[in-house]
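# step 3/5: fold
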Amino acid sequence: MNIKKFILLTAVLILFASCNSGDRGQLVGVKGKSWHPEKPYGMTLVPGGAFIMGKSDDDLAGVQDAPTKTATVRAFYMDETEITNSEYRQFVEWVRDSILRLKLAEMADLEGKTPGSGDIGEFAYKDADPEALNAYESYMQNTYGNEQRKINRDVDLIFDTADYPDELYAEVMDGMYLPLEESYNGQRTWDVKQFKFQYTYMDIQKAARNRNLKRSEVVIQQEVEVYPDTTAWIRDFAYSYNEPMHNDYFWHDAYGDYPVVGVSWKQAQAFCQWRTLYHNGYQKSKGSQPVNSYRLPSEAEWEYAARGGLQGASYPWGGPYTKNDRGCFMANFKPLRGDYAADQALYTVEADAYDPNDFNLYNMAGNVSEWVNGSYDPASYEYSSTINPNVNDPDNARKVVRGGSWKDVAYFLQVSSRDYEYADSARSYIGFRTVQDYMGTEVTKNAATN
């Protein structure tokens, strides 16, 4: 072997060895970033496990829609409380500000205004690498098609009319309020019909059942008005004076920690999409891996969580009584005919009122009923799977609500009782809470007790 061939062979061997450095030529898999589970703020981990789902005692109402069956669910995180007015307002204001900034940037672009002049030009677009866009900017780009234009978020929005920088800014802002002839008491009122959130998602169930469909055929786009229907306080109760709740409940700070109501099933779904977008925007800014999506719980997950590890119980605290040993009611509901205040509350109470169940979840019975990600079918328990059971038919507009509310009798507070409302309906007694899948399968209730 001449010297040139020897040197070439040695170089190849060195290169080959460097490509396999550390694995000795063995199949060791691709090494990713180290990962540790992180409990989302305000949530608690519900360990997976098996439970007896359905009515464990007599079905006094004779509905016969919840026969007992053994089911198993995987571990997941769940909001400790119902989503509050304050939390939902964060969503509403984010959508409002997103639309405002886009309109201001469009106006500045149309008029040729640029930063530095102290007018609407301060809100002009910025050029940006699309890979560097944050959650807000990606949302605006994908939703409104503003290509690679970056919204200027470095300058605060101005809401005081006396501080508007110029007439163009005033024109944009005035367009977001109702006309003067539609306002009263001298108050400027937002045109909340313009507060719309657009999002896309993949219908994985549809894609799995129809493998020949194109990807574009299973990517669904939705647009939802996000402001709660505060008129529900009036419409839900004929010949009743509830105007104070209509006027103040959602926006006033006095009710900030109370559960949001007047939110439809579709709006609850939109909130979940936004919360995922918002959280992953932060994750991206830190170079961290994205989190699992926030979503509504399945009917089985909700009931499993409500039971708090108790098998065969009627209520989250056990049962079969709605009072404790001191004679105090354990939840916010209507204990007596016409007497809504016997439990110390007329309408809703704070989301963390009363004692939590053994999974540290508050108000899984009473206060407000809760939307779940399931369609109501009286026979669904008969044919649903026994592992992570979930029946959500897109063509069935009747969506399940669970837990009972401040205006319900005790029957609807039972962890096994089922009820429904239409997906586009908003009620003064229906709210929601969200869940997030736990990454991994080793956390189970069974393992925790062995």
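# step 4/5: annotate
The radius of gyration is 27 Å.
# step 5/5: archive (pending)
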